[in-house]
Amino acid sequence: MGESITFWVLAVVSVIAALGLVFSRRAVYSALMLGVVMLSLAVLYAVQDAPFLAAVQIIVYTGAVMMLFLFVLMLVGVDSSDSLVETIKGQRFWAVVGGLGFAALLALGIGNAVAGSPKGLAAATEGGGNVSSLAQLIFTRHVFAFEVTSALLITAALGAMVLAHRERAEAKPTQRDLSRQRFAAFGRTGKNPAPLPGPGTYARHNAIDMPALLPDGTIAPLSVNRYIARYEESKGILPPEVAEVLEQEEAARRAAQANGHGGEHGTPTVADEARDAGPDTEPMPEDGTGQDTVVAGRVVRPRGESAATEEDGK
């Protein structure tokens, strides 16, 4: 009685989870439904006096195969859109061939189960118990199917790597290209091409709210986080050293505006940082274009003309 109740309850749960696995639109939900199906099968194996199959179902399939699916989700991404570009030639043909082969194997398995007469558990395990009888069948009569299953798992791992592969739409910028872009931005806007000093470089703390200290003990203006400084200023807890740096910066900005320079060079102000925010991808003009280019505050003549340079001063 208890075996029948367990079977009908888990059968309904397994069928519902299998339908959710097939029709779910999100890969995470499909993986969860697959786990429910595997655990339900493990319980059914245990009820049918097959403890080895129940343990294998949990350890191998739920523990290993499910981990493989999770690795695929981590590599591909949960929110990544499906690509309609076929990167493997002939994959539709081989997908149809594989589907027909799987349908034929499924039909043969169902037909064998329906047409054949069951031997019973006692007759199947008379060779020395559940584990030894199962091992004898796997490595003698069903060794080909066992090896095909191993090849299927290897194919799944290779499929995960293929799905994780992405074709680049454009060439990856090299360190030289990135350096040229930084100095081109410095020539146009005066944005510092060097990286910002790390927080807490000479301080006793390593946090973003602790500005770096120069060797003379003063605060490095480029390491002051403007967002945190504004928040601390609104709460009235801004340190006086940081407030002094911000006042000096504001005075320099007003002086530059009064002189008509707009603060293009020197320490970037908050407005300059907001204006220059985001990656600068404009390439450096090539030599021989017949136009002057500005690099690091100097006007550079093209090749073939005068090699002399003049200071821009701005």
From TrEMBL:
It is a multi-pass membrane protein. The chain crosses the membrane at residues 6-23, 28-46, 52-73, 93-115, 143-164. Keywords: Cell membrane, Membrane, NAD, Quinone, Transmembrane, Transmembrane helix. Residues 252-314 are annotated as: Disordered. Its main location: membrane. It is an enzyme of class 7 (translocase). It is found in: Cell membrane. Coiled coil: none annotated. Its EC number is 7.1.1.-. The keyword Cell membrane applies. It comes from the Bacteria. NDH-1 shuttles electrons from NADH, via FMN and iron-sulfur (Fe-S) centers, to quinones in the respiratory chain. Couples the redox reaction to proton translocation (for every two electrons transferred, four hydrogen ions are translocated across the cytoplasmic membrane), and thus conserves the redox energy in a proton gradient. PANTHER family: NADH-QUINONE OXIDOREDUCTASE SUBUNIT J, NADH-UBIQUINONE OXIDOREDUCTASE CHAIN 6. NCBIfam families: PRK06638.1-5. Belongs to the complex I subunit 6 family. This is NADH-quinone oxidoreductase subunit J. It comes from Microbispora amethystogenes. The lineage of its organism: Bacteria, Bacillati, Actinomycetota, Actinomycetes, Streptosporangiales.
